[in-house]
């Protein structure tokens, strides 16, 4: 087992793996555990676009029969992480540039609505919690551990906004989009340049400032532009 995968496994508890999947009708039991762990690896860029995934190797890795592996792959296929092709088998998807930009265009609108709701419904205590979220160091993002910490910070930021928005049904429906967004951004990258990460961190700080200030239109516009800017920073 290589060091990157070992880090992934050691840092992954059941609670961490399942927390963002409350919206999805994921398989239960072993199949659900496989879904959560493979999704986590996709998000962190461990598996590369076009990489073949062996059903037998996965079954051996997770010490299960092929049935839960097949159920897990079926779910991941529906979520957009893998494709199953005749005579080729299962492989990680390779989204086109246009597909990625289309996805982030839709994603930006959803997150912008969450920001508007947060401005309308926030409390002083929630403002304090949002302001307290700080990014980790951005050097070393080519390593799995640092990348996991950075993504955890991004999740904490957006989760807090959705919590302030007080729209659990919507949050549940759309929480999987952020995982897919991370998957798209990390595909094919050995790391995210610190200056890119730092720029995105500054944007998040400004979004938080506008939410706290109660400027709904500025905050939602900043969030929309923040999400839209991500594929442009990476796919150039």
In this structure, how is the largest beta sheet organized?
A: 3 strands, antiparallel
Number of domains: 2
Which outline best applies?
globular
* Stretches with pLDDT under 50, minimum 5 residues: 13-23
Strand content: under 5%
Computed over alpha carbons, the radius of gyration is 18 Å
Give the CATH superfamily of the largest domain. Answer: GntR ligand-binding domain-like
Report on this model:
It is a single chain. This protein has helices at 3-10, 14-18, 29-43, 55-62, 66-79, 97-121, 124-131, 144-165, 168-186, 194-213, 216-234; strands at 52-53, 82-85, 89-92. The chain has 236 residues and is mainly alpha-helical. It has two domains: 3-92, Winged helix-like DNA-binding domain superfamily/Winged helix DNA-binding domain (Arc Repressor Mutant, subunit A, Orthogonal Bundle), CATH 1.10.10; 97-234, Up-down Bundle (Four Helix Bundle (Hemerythrin (Met), subunit A)). A three-stranded antiparallel beta sheet has the order 1-3-2. A hairpin with a 3-residue loop joins strand 2 (82-85) and strand 3 (89-92). Helix 6 packs across helix 8 (144-165) and helix 6 runs antiparallel to helix 11 (216-234). The radius of gyration is 18 Å and the shape is globular.
């Amino acid at each position: 087992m290589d060091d990157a995968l070992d880090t992934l496994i050691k840092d992954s508890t059941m609670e961490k793996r399942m927390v963002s999947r409350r919206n999805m009708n994921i398989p239960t039991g072993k199949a659900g555990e496989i879904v959560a762990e493979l999704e986590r690896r996709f998000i962190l860029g461990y598996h590369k676009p076009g990489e073949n995934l062996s059903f037998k190797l996965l079954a051996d890795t997770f010490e299960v029969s092929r049935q839960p592996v097949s159920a897990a792959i079926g779910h991941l296929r529906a979520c957009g992480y893998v494709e199953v092709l005749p005579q080729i088998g299962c492989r990680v998807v390779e989204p086109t540039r246009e597909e990625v930009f289309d996805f982030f265009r839709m994603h930006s609108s959803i997150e912008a609505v969450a920001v508007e709701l947060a401005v309308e419904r926030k409390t002083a205590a929630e403002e304090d919690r949002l302001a307290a979220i700080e990014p980790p160091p951005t050097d070393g993002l080519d390593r799995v551990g640092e990348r996991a910490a950075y993504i955890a910070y991004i999740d904490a930021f957006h989760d807090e906004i959705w919590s302030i928005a007080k729209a659990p049904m919507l949050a549940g429906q759309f929480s999987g989009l952020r995982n897919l967004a991370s998957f798209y951004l990390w595909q094919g990258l050995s790391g995210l340049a610190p200056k890119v990460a730092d720029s995105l961190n500054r944007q998040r700080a400004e979004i938080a400032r506008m939410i706290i200030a109660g400027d709904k239109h500025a905050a939602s516009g900043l969030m929309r532009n923040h999400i839209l800017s991500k594929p442009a920073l990476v796919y150039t």
